[in-house]
Amino acid sequence: MDVQYEGEKNREFFNRKIEEYDATHATFMKTKNELCSYLPQDVTKILDLGVGTGLELIEIFKKYPDVDVTVIDISEKMLEKLKQRDFSDRIHIIQGNFFYLDFGDDYDAVISTSALHHFLLKDKLVLYKKIYQALKIGGVFLNADKIVNTDLEEEEAIEYYNLYAHEKPHIDRPLSIHHEEEILKEAGFQNINVFLVDKENYRLIRAYK
To answer: How many angstroms separate the CA atoms of 7 and 18, rounded?
Structure first.
């Protein structure tokens, strides 16, 4: 399926899930909060991809109250809820599909939490290359997201997706750590580290430009 069609499916799905989103993602808050500690100490500008309702930004604004943050999400309902946060006046909000937006090229950090497992490997590689270009030299990409523990589990997830993609409104497609590291390197990233914070099927990945 093309990324435009997938994007529209995700928009509709997350618009419907808005009332339960925070409760569902609260189970990953330890990792979301830990992400803040891996930001550069002198960070001034951040791009957040798939911001949702902004759960990961709570801790970031506590530590870096003056940081300049641009956020992107495809769901207008998520962004409406984000605007209710007490830090909403300090962020630049963009609604749209990652694959059709210009990210710019001057960020100290690009972050994402619980968002990028919605893309197939080939599409994720395209996105990682865009993220790489969006970072300053020495900038960092921090991705806290679902993973599978083996390539076989990844293959099974993709097979399930191929069978039911047109029948089900939303199917996760997490990659194995092996493939995450592989496409990050192919996109140009160096010094890649993977951290287990609190859930076996969830990792925080750090990669530098």
So the answer is: 16
Structural domains in the chain, sorted by start: 3-208 (3.40.50.150)
Least Cα distance to 43 among 111, 142, 139, 133 occurs for: 139
User: What type of residue is 160?
Assistant: Y
Torsion of Cα atoms, 12 then 56 then 85 then 104, to 10°: -70
* Burial 104-118, CB ≥16 within 10 A → b, else e: eeebbbbbbbbbbbb
Euclidean distance between CA atoms 50 and 75, whole angstroms = 9
Residues 124-182 have pLDDT tens digits of 999 999 999 999 999 999 999 999 999 999 999 889 888 887 877 778 899 999 999 99
- 8 Å CB contact between 209 and 139: yes
